Amino acid sequence: MTVEAAMVLPVFLLFVLFLISIVQMTLYSTALQSTASDTVKVVAAHMYPAALAEERWGEENPGSQQENDSGAGRNSAAEATPWSIPRLSVEDWGAGYADALPEPMDGWLRSVLQKGEGPLQQLQAEASESVLDLAVKPLLKPYLSSTLLDYERIHVSNVLVPKLKEKDSRPYFGLQVSYELPMKVPFLNKKIVLEASAVERLWIGDTGEGGSGSDDPDQEEDSGILILEKPDPGVANKQGKIRAKLPPDAKANLTIFYKSGKSSARYLGWKQADENGYIEWEWKIGVNTTPGNWPFVIELEDGRKLEVTFTVVK
Fold first, then answer.
1. Shared domain check, 189 and 270
2. Is 301 within 8 Å of 295 (Cβ atoms)?
3. Which residues, given as ranges, of the chain have pLDDT below 50?
4. Dihedral through CA 197, CA 314, CA 244, CA 256, nearest 10?
5. How far is CA 182 from its chain centroid?
6. In CA terms, which of 12, 21, 77, 176 is 20 to 30 Å from 2?
7. What is the pLDDT of residues 246-277, one digit of tens each?
8. Residues 114 and 239 in one domain
9. Cβ distance 225 to 244 under 8 Å?
10. pLDDT the model gives residue 65
11. Domain count, the chain
12. Distance between CA atoms of 255 and 252, rounded to whole angstroms?
């Protein structure tokens, strides 16, 4: 019995410690998500009144308003969409050069680019956090949902800021935060980092985001995008499918917006059409998705895009 206990007890203790670690990580993750959500809700609720106050102040101070208008004129194209920190990718940048090289040089170049991708992403994350922690992180402090979280371990990875001056802008404010756990991976001594994100719509009335979409054939012709299939209707907790016709071999990005904000479902995002221009996305509509009419946007690499609405039911 002593020999058997000596063999089984270490395994049993490791299993218990593993369960305790999982419970702790769940508590940290829940508290981090709650903090991000509460912060985004409060900021979204006060952002539009602040923008109106700024606009009124500009009307009372025409000199400053003219300076702002001149600066806005130079950046009018950038103000058409929300702002967030762009993703840098050495692998995407060098893919065109690798395709132009013969074998096996293209494979060598891709291998080198893949090795450089990790350090680049780490460098960008550290640079983004150093800037956003100073500007945005103080907003999180009043809404720490639990004493479990250490304020110094929280970092802001990205932020989504709407352009309120543009009527057709996406009125969504979002945060992406990370939290370094005090515990580390056993035997490997590597840190564990949790991530949470939250997006909230600024309720500022009609912003034109519903759009007429596929009801306007001229818009489809101008954008070069033709919707062939969409959920009609989409059912919560079921698969949704969007199929479109693009220019041959074109790359397109699909973005879906629900009441809670931008969808983070898998299998959305960038894809490449086949040689005939056909492309499709298939994803699972969340079980908690609010029923209603919600827009999705298909955007090409050259900036052309088409916005269409679809219906979600329970």
1. no
2. no
3. 64-81, 168, 206-207, 209-219, 221
4. -20
5. 26
6. 21
7. 888 888 888 888 877 788 888 888 888 888 88
8. no
9. yes
10. 47
11. 2
12. 10
What is the share, in percent, of the chain residues with pLDDT greater than 90?
A: 0
291 and 252 both lie in a single domain = yes
Q: Rounded CA gap, 42 and 162, in Å?
A: 15
Structure pTM? 0.51
Give CA–CA dist 241/252, Å, rounded.
15
Of 201, 217, 242, at which residue does a domain stop? Answer: 201
Helices (H), the chain: 2-60, 62-74, 90-99, 105-135, 217-223
- Domain limits for position 99: 1-58+90-201
**136 plus 174 within the same structural domain:** yes
The amino acid occupying position 218 is: D
- Same domain, yes or no: 5 and 127: yes
CB 236 within 8 A of CB 249: no
Q: Does 181 share its domain with 231?
A: no
Residue 240 backbone phi and psi in degrees, to 5: -115, 150
